[in-house]
Amino acid sequence: MSAWKVGDMLLWADPALLVVNKPAGLPTLLDGYQLEASCLLNLLSAEFPTVMVVHRLDKGTSGILVLARTPQAHQQLSLQFERRLVAKRYQALMSGEPDWEHWEVCAPLRKDGDRRRRTVVDTQRGKTSHTELNVLAHYRGFALVEASPHTGRTH
């Protein structure tokens, strides 16, 4: 039996959409290497007849996900993400104290293709990426940073 409960994650449900707060440790989709593991899509599908993933969060990342319950909603949401009409923001606690308050990172990224699904900087074959970083708070030895990706690259 899974420790994850849909009721604990569900923020909004209507005939077209589901909005959930995905916990860290739960993958959005099945991992091709761990087919027996739980994933958010399977948990939601057990309670809602039709659920379609529009965007994902990494297994180790918690946060808000919007899922479609109809093909029309999926198409409209996918277009909004494709056209970059959706603002994405991530917060992370980083080790160390940066000497910057705002930093823009532009680097050519490509998926490494290994089992760990890493992303690497590749000046020859990478695709342009752009992310803005802002320090939200300073702590002794740490900083709370907000990352706002402007391109749809896995970082």
Notable traits:
155 residues, alpha+beta, Pseudouridine synthase, 2 domains, 3 helices, 15% helix
Describe this structure in words.
- By secondary structure, the protein is an alpha+beta fold.
- It has two domains: 6-82, Pseudouridine synthase (2-Layer Sandwich), CATH 3.30.2350.10; 90-149, no CATH class.
- Helices cover 15% and strands 37% of the residues.
- It contains three helices and nine strands, in the order αββαββαβββββ.
- The protein has helices spanning 6-9, 40-47, 71-82; strands at 10-13, 17-22, 52-53, 63-68, 90-95, 102-111, 119-121, 127-139, 142-149.
- Strands 5-9-8-6-7 form a five-stranded antiparallel sheet, with no helix packed on it.
- Strand 8 and strand 9 form a beta hairpin.
- The protein is globular, with a radius of gyration of 17 Å.
- The model has no long low-confidence stretch (mean pLDDT 90).
**Gyration radius from CA atoms, angstroms:** 17 Å
> What kind of sheet is the major sheet?
5 strands, antiparallel
The CATH architecture of the largest domain can be given as 2-Layer Sandwich
Order of helices and strands: HEEHEEHEEEEE
Average pLDDT for all residues: 90
Distance from first to last alpha carbon: 32 Å
Give me the CATH fold name of the largest domain: Pseudouridine synthase
Oligomeric nature of the chains? single chain
